[in-house]
Amino acid sequence: MSKVKREKVNYLEYVFNIFEKYSIWQISFKNPKDGNIIKRSTKLPATAANLVIVKKEIIPAIVNFVGGKIKEDDSINNEDLILNDFVDNYFEIYKSRVREHTYYRTILYYNNKIKPHFGNKKIISIKPIDLEKWQNNLVSKKYKATTIQKYRSIFFSILNEAVKNEIIKTNPLSLVSSPKIIKEFKISDDDEIYPFSNEEIKIIIENSEDYLKNFILLMFSSGIRPGEIIALTWKDIDFEKKQILINKTITNGKVGLPKTVSSVRKIDMLPLAELALNEQLKLSKNYKYVFINSKGEHIYSHSVIGRKFKELVEKLAINYRPLYNLRHTFASHLISQGEDIIWVSKTLGHIDISITIKHYTKFIKEDEETRLNKIKKIGANFGANIFL
User: Fold this and answer.
1) What's the angle, vertex CA 126, arms to CA 125 and CA 132, rounded to 5?
2) Pseudo-torsion of CA 114, 120, 125, 131, nearest 10°?
3) For the segment 211-244, what is each residue's pLDDT rounded down to a tens digit?
């Protein structure tokens, strides 16, 4: 059974029913002259843009054909188009521009934060004052300015597409200022990179159990992103070569490509990571994915793990940092111990070493003897031939 979406349109003395069948817009109407019901396929795919064509072009043409009197002012215009209908068409185009998990995440943001307020409004009726109220509502709910800007960006792109399609003349969101990003003063200059200490990690692992314990230990000992961990299958784990293949991620239930091209990588399996995976093997060796839900399928989102991690850390009275800081802890601990920063960068899946240095340079430490020996070594080579 195909999904049918109906809409009634009055045009002069005619009443048209527009409905979707087999993904094509269909039309039915009663001829007022003889009372016969006429049904026709428009042969147009059932998109929001084609719905406008049906209203503005096909219906007037039909009325003209059967002898109705058409006035220029009677034509159906863009004032009838509501946001939800237009967005259906927008996302069809958007899907080809981005990675799959980005596409589904954007739809999720739209459905949760934009659709409840504006979905059933006519696009032409959305005014700057409405958008400012919407934005202020998000601020009042304590959303971060950076998060609000994500929602704004999605809405702005949708409204820009409406401008390009001559549905509205200007983008009303361009007249509403973005919320200011105010950096809070922090005693620590580590910002969001606030690694756990060895003692904290020890306490967290000792007080966790089952798959959560294995997840925490694996992330701490490999630096793999949480979305990449829940996407791991047992085929990605090579215990013999001690390697882990990272070639996918999961976002809101959708399996997609990792964050960047460099994120597709094989990483070395350190002993602690091997321990975590061997323990997890006891729990899920008969399933495809390494970490599974109660149905034996992959975990929908790493936020599920994140919530459990938060509950655990707060229960242990440890200063809370998000799950992602386990990745930062892995990198900062290795770099502070003088390990090869190029190896760390490749393991993390950074585009190049400059990204790693930018985020973790504060953790590069050395004692005074090491520093003096470095000066001596560098100085011996630098300018050595100038005074010969």
Assistant:
1) 145
2) -20
3) 999 999 999 999 999 999 999 999 999 999 999 9
Give CA–CA dist 145/133, Å, rounded. 15
pLDDT bracket for residue 100 (50, 70, 90): confident
Nearest CA to 237 out of 279, 293, 209 is that of 279
The whole-angstrom separation of Cα 341 and Cα 14 is 74
- Reported as a single tens digit per residue, the pLDDT across 271-318 is 999 999 999 999 999 999 999 998 999 999 999 999 999 999 999 999
Whether the pLDDT of residue 50 is over 90: the answer is: no
Q: Is residue 323 over pLDDT 70?
A: yes
Q: Which amino acid is at 272?
A: L
Examine the pLDDT at 187 and tell me if it is beyond 60: no
Q: Give the separation between CA 52 and CA 76, rounded to whole angstroms.
A: 8
Angle between helices 210-222 and 271-284 (to 10 degrees): 150
Segment (H or E) for 328 = helix 325-336
Question: Of how many residues is the chain composed?
Answer: 388
User: In this structure, which amino acid lies at residue 240?
Assistant: E
What strand order describes the sheet that includes 24-30?
Answer: 6-11, 14-21, 24-30, 37-45
Asked if 6 contacts 38 with a C-beta cutoff of 8 angstroms, the reply is no
| Mean pLDDT of all residues belonging to the chain | 83
The whole-number pLDDT of residue 12 equals 72
98 φ/ψ angles, rounded to the nearest 5 degrees: -130, 170
Q: Treating both helix axes as pointing N-terminal to C-terminal, what angle do 100-109 and 83-94 enclose, rounded to 10 degrees?
A: 170
Amino acid, single-letter form, for residue 76: I
Which residues have C-beta within 8 Å of that of residue 52, sequence separation ≥ 6?
78, 81, 167
**Rounded Cα distance, 348 and 120, in Å:** 44
Q: What is the pLDDT of residues 156-175, one digit of tens each?
A: 999 998 888 888 889 999 99
pLDDT average, residue stretch 98-116 = 86
